[in-house]
TrEMBL record:
Annotated source species: Acaulospora morrowiae
Organismal lineage: Eukaryota, Fungi, Fungi incertae sedis, Mucoromycota, Glomeromycotina
SMART domains, per database record: HDc (SM00471)
Protein name (Swiss-Prot/TrEMBL): 353_t:CDS:1
Example GO molecular function: dGTPase activity
A GO biological-process term: dGTP catabolic process
Domain HD span(s) in chain numbering: 71-200
InterPro entries: dGTPase-like, HD/PDEase_dom, HD_domain
Amino acid sequence: MAFREEDNYINKNRKPHNPKSSKYVNDPIHGYMEFDDWVVDFIDTPQFQRLRDIKQLGSTYFVFPGASHNRFEHSLGTAHLANSLVKRLFDQQQHEQISSDDIKCVTLAALCHDLGHGPFSHVFDNTVVPKLFGEWRHEVGSEMMLEYLLEENSMDFDEKDVKIIKDLITGEVTDSKRSFIFDIVANKRNSIDVDKFDYLERDCYYLGMKSKFEFTRLMNFSKVIDDQITYLHKEYFNISDMFHTRYSLHKRVYNHRVSKSIDHMIADALVKANPIFRFTDVISNREEYLKLTDGILYKIEYSNDPELEESRKIIKNLRYRKLYKFVDECLIPAEYYSHVTEKHLNELEIVSHQTGDDPISVEDVIVDRVKMNYGKGNQNPLDSVKFYGKYSKDNDAFCIESSEVAYLVPEKYEEEIVRVFSRDPEKVRLTEDTYRNCLTSHLKQIYHSRSNQYNTHSDH
């Protein structure tokens, strides 16, 4: 499907609405969403329909029964918001003609941004693949599946447009003349994008939680200044609510102790099943990756292959809620980050500090490191947001210091928690004692190290 030349003048010569060329989808979050025929062409493909079988929140569904929504509806919602926002921003521009190719590329990037997610979403790309293969991001899979979708369904697209869609998915700015469009789907500048707008609202809805963030209002009070999306200064606290909602969901839901326990059970089951399913090969084989969904657990569970016995046992324990047991956790002070890295605190290091007669092995222990922030590491993402005043000139955008609007703001914007789980429920207490011995030993080393540094500086 090539972009039509006659669509290149969208402001003054926009075609009248043709109900036969669009489709409506009723969504609990956004109401009736309208998709043009060129979007529907993408939706009605096996590559996109696959997302119906991948849970948006992965294993969280095993803890929060309402979280049954899938990547499919999230992708539709993100595309709907991207299309609405980019049209609005383009209509504000003072150019006499603007190519509709930009609208289509942004919309399709939003629609396809999650095509590469594997089983149980981040469990696969953040835990399973690193254990088997190494670092891998689902965006790489999304690019692979996008190419597969275009070729398999005979979509006629210019290579230039495909490249732009891929860059929009990753948020890498490749056009300095209109860099603001790269902020819409995956915003690397300040982390405000329609992907978050949809998943924050959608996740809260299905989790039975309330969100104070008003994404519709924020979109309505946005405009492009200096090739960057800016917001009315009154939206400062609305944006702050968005980042706090994100942090709150990570703290209360996405990194829930039981969810993380189940994450590791599913990851273990898939890693042990790799000799049969060859995930390390599948992630680069688009035809096979198409078949890889959350349904992989059922394939393992109901298989009679003796090589899958260990994986079946883990899944059976999951069905009976015989989960890996949470042992303990520690919130690491920011000044100790460099002293409590994976090198200092890992399964092998913990086991080396055991003193009991009943030994624990490395296979009994899981060390899980969780970083939670406002979306931009230890920085306040609001410092990277540009605002405009109600009576500002078109080229007058500015930053707002947090001290100008409130004194009740976080001192830090990132935290790291180290959690320990036990695969053997009979060894929880022993693992806890060993973990605390290890932690105490490291704290003493840190104390002596810092004391020596202080004494050295004092001598000078």
